[in-house]
Amino acid sequence: MDDLGHKRIAKIAIPIVLANVTVPILGAVDTGVVGQLGQAAPIGAVGLGAISLTAIYWIFGFLRMGTVGLASQAIGAGDKAELSALLSRVIFLGFSAGLFLIVTQSFLINGAFWLSPGSTEVESLAENYIRIRVLSAPAAIALFGITGWLVARERTGAVLALQLWINGLNIVLDLLFVLQLNWGVDGVAWATFIAEWSGFMLGIFLCRDVLKMPGWHNAARIFDRVTLRRMAAVNVDILIRSALLQAVFVSFLFIGAGFGDVTLAANQILLQFVFVTSYAMDGATAAVEVLVGRAVGAKNRVALRRSVILTGQWAAIIVVVCGVSFGLFGSAIADIMTTSEAVRAAFRTYLPYIILAPLVGWVAWLMDGIFIGATRTKDMRNMMVLSSLVYLAAILILVPQYQNHGLWVALLISFIARGITLSLRYPALERSAED
Question: Model-level pTM?
């Protein structure tokens, strides 16, 4: 890893930043096109339906995170057979998980509405949205593994092309189905369905060089028990961590729904800005995942520390840019996203929280990348449990008295708690690099 420096980080990070920023932009367009209807209920329905599915999909995000760590370490160790077998393994797991969600969709819908008793209109629209979108679950979940595999190989330009295709097509179809054909909330769902399946096919094409590697079609290698046990241990830890993280975001939106459709709609728009930061930060975290993974695979403690320092500098710059941008342009963007004056006013009330979110959350996001690359997933799981308990305590103390303001403060506190607890475990991670 003699070429480890800002140039290499930029090569990994910049395409990921560009790719991932398109994801919340898509969420903003989804919200914005239904916002042109001039009613709060369609915005809330898209928000409720989207975050319900996104929460479930992000639980399976272990396929991306675990794949980056495991594939990077395989590259660092020079094991091409395992690298190729890993791709086949994660696609199989992604398809299996997606088919399971299709079969159990009624249970998922009922569970979402039990947790979030929205208005009758919002629930009806959200149910239709979920039933359409879940049909592309196999493609959406398998794409996590494909993306992680490409990132580990530092082929982030291919990841950018993949995301531009998926999200660009989705936006075009949003505009066509909702604004031209008047399909409403259903149109947003069908646009995503088409985009995700076409993206999966493009992803397979981008990984076609795996055919030249040994192991991709070797069933014994793909389903090797020792390898599967290690992968299962890593992925179960990430699954638990991701489930808890999504429980925080889902509970945030669901609790906010109890304050009325206007607050629900405002929170949905505000969360898009938080997700912008998260996806922008993913450039730095992707770089640290790859570089830390390779350093661990090569048992190079010096390279590990240098990777953390350099990517930390990138992360700090990213969050400052996000916070300043939200303060300067947040209100204007919100005015574009909705024509409802009540929702616009609510957005401005809570704007300071999304300005603070990047500044208090960046350590947690960076530490996630470090621990994923090192596959120290047990620490990630345990620290997420602790920070979730801190969030729960903050909810119980703050929300009854301060309502939606208390809800936002509790969310920011959860970011801080996760960053601190993971930072305390970093020295042990670094010492393990030479074990």
Answer: 0.76
